[in-house]
Prior knowledge:
- The protein is an alpha+beta fold.
- The chain has helices at residues 2-9, 36-55, 70-93, 98-115, 126-135, 165-169, 196-203, 271-283, 302-312, 355-365, 472-484, 487-501, 513-534, 548-554, 558-572, 575-590; strands at residues 20-23, 122-124, 139-142, 145-149, 155-160, 177-183, 189-190, 210-216, 222-228, 230-233, 242-246, 249-255, 290-293, 317-323, 329-332, 344-348, 370-373, 381-387, 394-396, 399-401, 408-417, 433-434, 507-510, 544-546.
- The chain is built from 16 helices and 24 strands.
- The protein has a seven-stranded mixed beta sheet, with helices on both faces. Strands 2, 14, 15, 18 and 21 form a five-stranded antiparallel beta sheet that branches. A four-stranded antiparallel beta sheet has the order 7-6-8-9.
Amino acid sequence: MIQLLSVLEAKPFVFSDKDTITFLSKTSTPFVCKDLNDLRRRIEKRLKYDCLNIIIKPTKENEDVLKLTQAELQVKQADAAKKVFTRFKRYLSNFSDENRIKHYIGDCLSNAITLRFDPHSSYFNNYEKESWDSGLSTEEFSFGFYADENDQSSIIVSDLVPGGPAWKSNEMHEGDVILGFQFEKQPYVDLTNSEVNDFYVLFYKTSSKNVEITIRRKDNQIKKVKLQKAKLQSQENVMNSYVINVEGKKFGYIPIPAFYSDFESDGNLGCANDVAKEIVKLKLDSIQGLILDLRYNGGGSMREAIGLAGIFIDEGPMAVYKTKIGKPSLMKDMNRGTIYDGPLVVMINGYSASASEFLTATLQDYERAVIVGSTTYGKGTAQIVLPADTNLYKARGKKYYMNPSFGYVKVTIGKFYRVTTASHQGKGIAPDIEIPDLMQRFMEKESDELFYLQNDSVNKKVVFSKLPTLPREELKGKSKNRIASNLQFSVMQHFADSLYGKKNENTKLTLSVKGVKKYNDDLDLVTKKIENFTQLDEKSTLSITNNKFMEKLLAVDEYQRKIIERSLEELKKDIILQEATLILNDLQQLKK
């Protein structure tokens, strides 16, 4: 392969409208190379395409690549080719070390074996385990900085996390150019001819805790900065709440990114506790209703889901849990009382899964909340992560520590059922009120996965006290009338049908500057249309602000203010959130 790459690199690429590349859809038969010449031709086409993607990127303001002279294009082509071949050589270097290849094959084989049992069983190496833990925690190990590209296509430090290792070093600053880095006991990585995406792929593929970063400051001074990973607050799992103003009333809004938890603590320091805190803050704003947003929430800790349900339900069983050999048992929140008993709306979509479905089903069955959006993913199973070699458990007092030498296995150990004893496994949870979502038909569900566990029910007597029946039909009628009269929703649905019709089509384009530019321009046009159909215009944006408590904190925290302001701008344009708010407004009026 290295020899083949050397042959391709020896002479400049020749781009022609007669040369084409085809991207296959998921339903197409996978491509199989007939011989080495066929393989060379395929690799060359892919490298040409990657090269053209770099060429068409503007390197200065208002640059039109189609109007560049031949000499200017040749300069851009030479620079793009260097980046493309550098990237491919790095990829091949992953397979140059025999020991590394053995580990890679071992990881793939282990994962293939586990996935054969069900879609949510998998093998983790140490890095994958660390990433998994970070996604379910309020904290993550980080070097405390982010990267981007400047106008000269150099990789730069874009943000420093206050209190993080990079910030504390006082040697890295926003705008510094990142020239390369070296992890402990690993070779130096030169970022010459690299893009910011290359940096992230290379920088975050290791679980090493120490790194030396080479930077060039604005005064052109070259500096080597040593950093050690530290635990920082995970920005993905930061819990914030907002206030939405509608017709002179205030409603609370809490987006819940995941059901994270502090697994090392015996206390309640996870997602449920954070939601409770946000509700207390929102009460200072005298809210008259509350929206919980579980869209794109893929689940997490079941303990947190139970605790969160208990915030809104006084007492009673939350679900039924069953293992392969054990008897069905009830899952209960052991804390009596509620923190919030006012009007409640829960937002869901096709990416709401597992623990978020658990919470949704419980609130729906108890008549505690109106569920709006689109049908959920359909995962009704629970998993646990264990060391691959269970003989490596080492007991130290009451704690158990895992030896990571052989990696970890995430295995499915049980199913959970609604208090009605029905299961949403493979089916998902249907909303009480459906709100059109452009991407709903493109979201893959549990039932699309190979070897998914089939839906069933459980034989268990469950006694629970429903709350008064919610006025679902009346709310549904009002929402349906609003959506029917909203041109934006109608156009969105038409566009979604059009996109879905092309889902299984192959994409063919010419390997020329004009051909690849047209392809990218068409993709940009589709993206803009999606934004136009899913986002409110400036005249219709939501009136949404921070709660009073948060506003005081942000007055002294510029970094968090910058993050929150970006979130607010997106929320103000969310057409689905707007309809959910209007449904909550209807519910509040009907409950008077």
